Amino acid sequence: MRDLFAVFRRELGGYFATPLAYVFIVMFLFVTGIFTFFVGNFFARGQADLKAFFLYLPWLYLFFLPAISMRLWAEERKGGTIELLLTLPVGIGTAVLGKFLAAWAFTGIALALTFPLWLTIGWLGSPDHGVVLAGYIGSLLMAGGYLAIGSCISAMTKNQVIAFVVSVVVCFAFSVAGSPMVTSFFVGWTPQVVLDAIASFSFLQHFGAITDGVIDLRDVIFFISLIALWLFANAVVVDANKAG
Amino acid sequence: MEAMVDVRNVVRRFGSFLAVDDVSFGVGRGEVIGFLGPNGAGKSTTMKMITGFLLPSAGAINVGGYDVVADPIEAKRNIGYLPEGAPAYPDMTSRQFLNFIADIRHLDGPVRRRRLDLVIEQTHIGDVLDQPIDTLSKGYKRRVGLAQAILHDPPILVLDEPTDGLDPNQKHEMRGLIGSMAAEKAIIISTHILEEVEAICTRAIIISHGRLVAEGWPEAEGWRLGDLQVEPGRLDAAFRQITGAAA
Fold first, then answer.
1. Which of A83, A144, B143, B195 is least surrounded, with the fewest CB atoms within 10 Å of its CB?
2. Full domain range(s) for residue B218
3. Is residue B14 domain-shared with residue B123, that is, in the same domain?
């Protein structure tokens, strides 16, 4: 537990030690603002809710979150510090989890800083605060999914750009798993069970269900187990490098 | 002598390349082993296996009574390791970095303060504590790496080229520091500098092409290196003869 916290703190500190954290947060807030107000027609909708914000968030996450996760392992491999980390008395599981939690916490900070949007709708009308809260919880869970994928992919390379690009593609596949773009590729030659299974991996569907204000345990379990699975794969990748 | 590090018939392959080929040796308390060999001979690979960064393909390594494969965490608690090139987190200051290591090494309260103060003094890094590590010179970086390795006062020290990149004065100091810790620890250092071996090592192991080709130790006059009787200051000629013949 103590080791986990030490790894977590070092990693989170790593984001704020460079301008990266500040640039990321400013850009994230700027872009979410643009999408919510201009692309999402926040005012014209005349609704006191954050639908316009949550509608575009998955697509912004698709590019912003791999930029957060890309450094987690690739940077350590490139700089040789992975040799230091893995020869300290810290389990691989602890290192993987500590790093992931740091990235997740950082994302949580950026997400929390969108609170003026919530204040705005509260001031303009009388929103259903439960639905908004559900949206934020769903966003955080979905972010965890993207970051776990990105962390695992980061462990496979020394090159942060490769980690970024591959993560975007894999995260995109998970985002749209339920859409015709993906399913039409499988229709006709795969049984319905497989189609349903592929579609059930869709981030957008699970996220959409939560932002509608219904926190279904199944959607929560989906994201949690997805995170667990990718982090397990992450640990396997790091461990495999030892036996190489 | 109590063996602190025991390397038995260790083999390491990278694909079809045999980096370490059936190497065995032991290191006891009070010994300073000099690990010699041409570049690419398998010195660093052997050190990475002792410290648990790489797994041996075959053979066994025991560190402070713990098998590095079966009990990696316990084995790692007993070791202080300075990896080749002294990697450290570039964005952290030396102070933050050492505090992180102290957290991971579970050092608390007065012990933590005492150890931090002592290693900072021993490695002479007091002036650069609040500088980010990536702004440090090679010599300072190496010393921060050494401070990290000795912070928890480990019974076993593994130092991969600890004096590389240091100026002659710093080299002299580093050797003095290693020498001062030698009595109560088991120390393994790799180096290309043979005068260093003469200055601080109690034993030398020469590795070439992954195989242990010779052992050496100081005698009343000069050194014995494999079958060779070496006059003081003439180790490098003997080294060339041994590693050249094996090539």
1. B195
2. 1-78+156-172+186-247
3. no
